[in-house]
Design goal:
This protein has about 120 residues and is an alpha/beta fold. Helix content is about 45%, strand content about 30%. It is built from 4 helices and 5 strands; from the N terminus they run ββαβαβαβα. A 5-stranded mixed beta sheet has the order 1-2-3-4-5, sandwiched between helices. Helix 3 links the parallel strand 4 and strand 5. The longest helix has 19 residues. The chain is globular.
Length: about 120
């Protein structure tokens, strides 16, 4: 099954919903291209919704790590949400779960950006 990536925005936060398998080949390279284009266009707040993602391999994990690193380098933030048991297990086995901010659903992930924005504004005052 090919990886489908649906993109939408909520409160200035880009949400990428993955459907299928994030694996070596066209799937992970298409994902990387999508994220690269977003970062090049100035997007700095990204939520990766994994609710319908069915499988991830080491190339897919590498793509998520790359997204996290590149977003951070651009002064942004990336979170994961709606991890199914397979994704959570893959991140745990690879000892990567602590690297990512994870949320139970898209609404919680979006809200985390709003909460961090209000903290930044409060600390600037």
């Amino acid at each position: 099954m090919a990886l489908e990536i649906t993109q939408h925005e909520a409160n200035g936060i880009c949400i990428l919903a993955l459907n299928g398998r994030l694996v070596l080949g066209d799937e992970s390279s298409g994902y990387r291209t999508t994220v690269s284009n977003l970062l090049s266009s100035g997007t700095k707040r990204i939520v990766i919704n994994l609710e319908h993602a069915r499988y991830i391999d080491s190339a897919g994990l590498g793509a998520l790590i790359e997204t996290h690193r590149n977003t951070k380098e651009k002064g942004g933030r990336m979170t994961l949400c709606s991890l199914g048991p397979n994704f959570r297990q893959a991140l745990e086995y690879a000892k990567l779960l602590p690297v990512f901010e994870t949320f139970p659903n898209e609404a919680a992930a979006v809200q985390s950006f709003e909460a961090s924005s209000s903290k930044a504004v409060a600390s600037d005052s």
